[in-house]
């Protein structure tokens, strides 16, 4: 099915007569506006007449109504402000302009708080169909300096509140939520994106340029942020020559064979989504960089080595490098970057911190929150001291060096990372839980290849805040699992993949608030039938599981449907 606002597009694409949606009438328009502004709450009667006028002036367009509803919901509820909105809408409707919808949306944009406007304009970075990764967008906003600290919250937590605010104003929409309901990605209506793009270009805030053998617009020298798509641009015509060296702050996109050793880039703060063959010398030229994301096309088989010059990145906050699974070696100087918040790679080797001496106190990296895909991570007492606020850690032990056995990795010290919320551990060696420590703060745990006996899972089950557990590729070993009551008290999502588990002897009280069960390549004799009685269970997903597993899932579904439970969903692939 294709939806479009353009009748000629519908006529050309349809194999049958297009179905035309009518505009909302005045009553339905008011009902929608009232719901967006007041929800289920009783509304003051003095707003009804004004509200109906505002709804009518939206011309029956649902998008205009929900955006104006978001504006009214977020603004002070005074009759004076509502009269102001009604008058503005009336003047737009009676202007005879073909862009009434955009002008209505601009009312919401013009009334955005000052701190939200740059965050909204930043979404001009994509196009009308772009799905924005919220985690990435948050990192970019932080690096750009758009965030105001909110009391005791981190900048990232403040950014998520900005996302919620834009959602409440209906300027963006949720595209995908995570297992725990958190917003993973968002998108924009094409009209909202058009408004965003126009305003960003008008203010020289951000430009998106598709070159494709065409001339580069000369006015990009005034642009502060540039997203470039120039797959066919000749190397001799570098876009960097057109930039204003004291103006450009952020760049994204495909730069072909363009060298980053360019004087116009020394003040660059953000470099994102770049594909290219870059040397470490080119990277080190970006001395003011805060956010750096590069997809390397070619990396030596021996890996990529950063030099001690990385210490020049005094302002670096986020470093994200894709090397197609080739290793990256970081120098000890990485521990001297005070602003660093996120380190994310395909695979990287993190050296031990340099030894403290009488001349230099060790730097406590208060801002560091993410270490993703660290090879052979050693959780020494010194590292625990250096990263007190670490929230996310992903470690890989696929081939341990001969001189590095589990006791030497000091993973029992993980228990002292009191802010750690997410831990992923991928190994290709059997590991005993006596060598692993789990902090009580842990909310998400992913294990792979560890071959832990099922009876030892009581250690994991006792974690008081654990909400997501993923057991992949023989994370646990044995044919039988008998959970104990009083464990997994907060677990909402459980993923089990590629294990030899056959008998799962569990009752509903063993997973009292489970919402989501995922089984991949599992040949259970039976999924515990009492799971169907869990009032919280919403979804069971099976992927390439044995017939007995599938049959038991279907039996649970049939029984629940016969009892009138329509909330449970079973997906079998």
TrEMBL record:
Transmembrane domains' residue ranges: none
Record-annotated Disease resistance protein winged helix domain positions: 128-195
Keywords from the named record: ATP-binding, Leucine-rich repeat, Nucleotide-binding, Plant defense, Repeat
Gene Ontology biological process terms from the UniProt entry: defense response
Keyword Metal-binding listed: no
InterPro entries referenced in this protein's UniProt entry, alphabetically: Apaf_helical, LRR_dom_sf, P-loop_NTPase, WH-like_DNA-bd_sf, WHD_DRP
Record keyword ATP-binding present: yes
Protein family: Belongs to the disease resistance NB-LRR family.
Protein name per UniProt: Disease resistance protein winged helix domain-containing protein
